[in-house]
## 1
Amino acid sequence: MQFVLGLALSGLMATGAVHAQSALDTILKNRKIAIAVPPDFPPYGSMDRDFKMHGLDIDMANYIGAKLGVEVDLIPVTSANRIPTLQKKKAALVIATLGKNPDREKQIDFTAAYSPFYQAIFGAKTVNIRSFADLSGKSIAVTRGSVEDQELNKVAPSGTDIRRFDDNTRTVSAFVSGQVQLIATGASVANTIMVGNPALGTTYKLLLKESPNYIGVAKGEDALRQKVNAIIDEAKKSGELDRLSMKWLERPAGDLPQ
């Protein structure tokens, strides 16, 4: 009888040990962390000809890895598969221009914000847009599953020709090539379009949402979330967040929400 109870107790202890093994424990044990980042969303993330990624989100990922004292494995993701990549445990963190909203908070947890961002509608000066009602009859490119896509759905009137693309590169290409009249995207991406294609005469039209970027963490991984929050807080106090924002966005991070 004592032998049987001993086995049962051992089994319970073993089960408890497995459950106690958090993502942070695994990261520190293996001295490696997988972080999902955007490969096609400059200046937050892009890939050069040597297949090396760079941008604000990549710098932030490497900064967190350095603070944890572990190697960083960068996992390229699209807007549509950022959350599934985290849920399937293919990455421990998602640092990919991820905005926070109630629907997403049901699926994953978020750290404090680490960089500024806002979404808007942009188009050529010759396209007359003064209100959302003016979108009717206009064609507009947006990345499927992005915050821009969700916000556009809320305000676009009947008759708006919304054309969704699976990644940001295709979305931008559709606008630049003239396939569509407008684009719903982040201000930083629009700025890249303006600088790279001055002949288009691209200008700001309508604000969709102020949406600071947060880091995504899998549900239940509170130890990892709290550790990353401590790193973000330290970076905010030291001026590192402002430095990264100035480097890539030419504006300080400012007073970001927790």
Note: The chain has ten helices and 13 strands.
## 2
Amino acid sequence: MATRLVQINMKARDDSVLGGFWAEALGWGVSSEGPGVTNLEPEGFVYPDPVAVVLDLVASAEPKTVKNRVHVDLATTSAAHQAELVARLKGLGATLADVGQGDVPWTVMADPEGNEFCVLDWHDAIRDTGPIATVVVDCADPRAMARFWGQAMDWTLHKVTDHNAVLRSAKGVGPYLQFLRTPDVKTVWNRVHLDLRPYPGDDPEPEAARLQTLGATAIDLGDSNVTWTVLADPEGNEFCLLAPA
């Protein structure tokens, strides 16, 4: 049994407006599975497919109070592309952000609701990922996260050091998933989290149990109507195990 990363869940004060920003930023199409939810995916995309990790924006009245522990890095292909993308994103409502990054070759920005993201330096070797080059998760111990997530999913571990751990779909397509060592301590529920799915025919209950034997913990939302299981990884980052698809 195994799972795979299929989407990013992002809380939003206004899912429709923020969804419009990210649709323009990524060049993706917009749909909605119901009130308070805006779904983004590439045009012509057949979900789920590792060629893209799609984005779900979910309405939430809770304010953003701290730096997100999960963010995306956007890919660029040249110095001109990097500059053009930064300018275009500013025109869409993004702002430059300072998260203590210092003098770095990439550009740190925030979307109209303050969610941090990076526009990567075009010298970065990442290629053929689509507009989202990397999904980045802050952590204290990349090696421990590599052990858990490397067994939780069937993605391939490409790199692990004391600084970061990097995984990607075993099919060699789509964005990378990076666990990046940071000194920040997790203090609140993550407004941006990962959603996983088992493969068709797999039973999500045994899969949830397997994830817990690897070090995940179950989170009880007190709502018997939800069709997914909420878990947290060994560092407390919430994620959802959805139904097989």
Note: The chain has one domain: 4-241.
